[in-house]
Amino acid sequence: MSPIRGLFKSFRKKSDSGGEDDAPRSEGMWVVAGLGNPGGDYSRSRHNAGHMAIDRIAASKGIDLNRKRFKGATGEVRFDDTPVMLVKPETYYNLSGECVSAILGYFKVPLERLIVVHDEVDLPEGRLQVRKGGGDAGNKGVRSVAASLGTPDFIRVRIGTGREGRRDEGLDFLLRPLSKAEAQLLEDSIARAAEAVETIVREDLTRAMNKFNQRNDR
Q1: pLDDT per residue over 28-80, tens digit each?
Q2: Do 53 and 117 touch, CB atoms closer than 8 A?
């Protein structure tokens, strides 16, 4: 039995007995999880680009992510007729998989309808990349999601936060507050990341890759 199938089976066992733990079946639902850290200290840092993308999608749909469950903040929107659950894990970045795997298991969402949005230092600032699977490039949040699901084969929207010439700054570079110019550049990337998510759900992964995996000449 595959790890992800075993995950779903364990949640089904909990619901078979009836009662409030019964998991709803959400036909066709997607889960979009944006990685980041909870708390105001990190809210405007590069490492919270995933959270910012989720907030942007939620704002465009006029909703708040005001339901706390599975160690995350969630809200539900629709892209045309497709239900989408927006998720901001609140476990701290490196444990994001605890939240993501719990939601997929509870709602019985297949792996192919999971999108993880996150910052990526391997991409220059201003760049965006949509892809499925692959390594984690040292991103511990992505690593946590892959480990919790038992597979890396989920869709990622990677927001470039590349730090050429600043690698000696380490995590401080990702966690420090952004300057006005830095914030504007990241905001542009976040807007395109939100659009990429909608393109994946409304159309398909290949079209999103063709549209957004282009070098930004900014």
Answers
A1: 999 999 999 887 666 677 778 999 999 999 999 999 998 999 999 999 999 99
A2: yes
Strand order in the sheet with 30-34: 67-69, 72-79, 82-89, 30-34, 114-120, 155-160, 128-132
Buried b (16+ CB within 10 A) or exposed e, 66-93: eeeebbbbbbebebeeebbbbbbbbbbb
Considering 46, 47, 118, 158, which one is annotated as catalytic?
47
- Residue 195 pLDDT level (bands cut at 50, 70, 90): very high
Is 47 labeled as catalytic in the residue annotation? yes
User: What is the CATH number that goes with domain 3-11+26-212?
Assistant: 3.40.50.1470
Domain regions of the chain by residue span:
3-11+26-212
